[in-house]
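Field reference: "sequence" (input) and "structure" (output). Example, DNA-binding response OmpR family regulator:
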Amino acid sequence: MARILIAEDAADVRDALERALVAAGHQVCARESGMAMLREVTRWKPELVVLDLGLPDLDGGLVLDMVRSMSEVPVVIASGRGHDKDVTRLLLAGADDYLVKPYSAAELDARIRAVLRRTQPEPPALLVVGGLRIDPVGRQATIDGRDLRLTRLEFELLSHLAERRDRTVPRAELTRRLRPHVPAGGRDTIDTHVYAVRRKLGESAARPAYLHTVRGVGYQLGAPPQVDGA
């Protein structure tokens, strides 16, 4: 389900947690020290950190501060320190949850899933413009049920216009949106991609249905009137 980084100095506990979380569907990277864990935060980029406070090289509270200085990754403290002042201090310092030992692997997994639900962004919603359906997660687009078979650049162009349905999108804005996806040395222009998208939509610049040119400015995507009124 998620990439989980564990910092736990007790080998038996570390191994047991790793086995249990892998069995629960997670990818797990387990380390025995604070410094080793911090290296993995930048190298492996976990989706959540499980942090013990009693590490051999650095106090867990300091490790939490260091993690927060470099990343927004959610952190679940899993420690034998259960005093209210410790819990309060570390939650205020940026921990997302606090679990006191002893605890079960099932409880830890449940806490991890709850934190991820709170902290992970919602997936983009389906974009609908008349008979046009665009799925940003699955990166698929259909028109009246027909697969459009778009290239990566065409999909980015059409998605951006659909996100701004019925608004004129300047050419400069489209250029900025597509720039990260243009191969090095590529000379394709916005016009080239608009032309390709129009052909796949089954229309042309002279007879547009969805994709309209706003001369001297940019483009606008909107549903044909008969589609909206259906």
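The first strand starts at residue 3 and ends at 7.
The chain has two domains: 3-119, 127-228.
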